[in-house]
Amino acid sequence: GLLLAAFSASVCSLLAITVDRYLSLYNALTYHSERTLGFTCAMVLLLWLLCLGVGLLPLLGWNCLRDQSACSILRPVTKDNAAVLAVTFLLLFALMMQLYLQICKIAFRHAQQIAVQHQFIATAQATSTRKGLSTLSLILGTFALCWIPFAIYSLVADSSYPVVYTYSLALPATCNSLINPIIYAFRNPDIQKSLWLACCGCVPSTFSSRPRTSSDV
Questions:
Q1: What CATH number is given to the structural domain containing 138?
Q2: Which residue segment(s) compose the domain that 22 sits in?
C-alpha cells in the first residue's frame, strides 16, 4: 500500500506540475491571481489524499491472498489490477506528452513575440527557445526512461518472474523523483538563485542582470 501510494504520488505530482506549467503559459495574464497559495495547498492535499486512497486498494480487495497464482509482480496486487494501474500510467504519460507539446508551441510563440517587441537578434531568440525545448525534452525523456520499462514489465510479467527483475526496474522509477529536482536545479535560474542564497547568502551578478525568458518556465 505504501509503495502504491508513493508511486502514485510521484506520477501525479509530475502530472500536476505539467498542468500547472501549461496553465501558466496558456493563461499568463490571470494565472497569478487564480493560483493563490491556498488554492495550491488545497490541490496538493487533494492529490495526496487521492494517492493514499490508491495505496489502500490492496486492503479493500485488490489483493491475491486467496489465489496466489493471480499475483502480479506488485504482490499482493492481482495481475488484472496491476494491468489497470500500468495502462492508467501509460495514459497519464500520453497526456503529459500532449501537454508538453502544447507548452513547446506556446513557448516558441512567446519567444517570437518577445523577439519582435524587444528587437532581439535571431540567434538570441533561437538559443532561448532551444534551451526551453531541451529542458522539457530532458524532463520528459528521463521520466519515460525511468517509468515506461517498469509499466510494460507490469503488463507482461507475473509473480513467477524472478524478483530481481522487478527490483531492477522499480529502482529507476523510484529514483526519478530524485533526478527531477537535479534537472530543475541545473536548468532553472530561480532555483539556482535559491540555492545560492541558501548556501552562501548571495546571488551572482549574472543572475540579476539576466532577462527572464520563456525557457525559464
A1: 1.20.1070.10
A2: 1-199
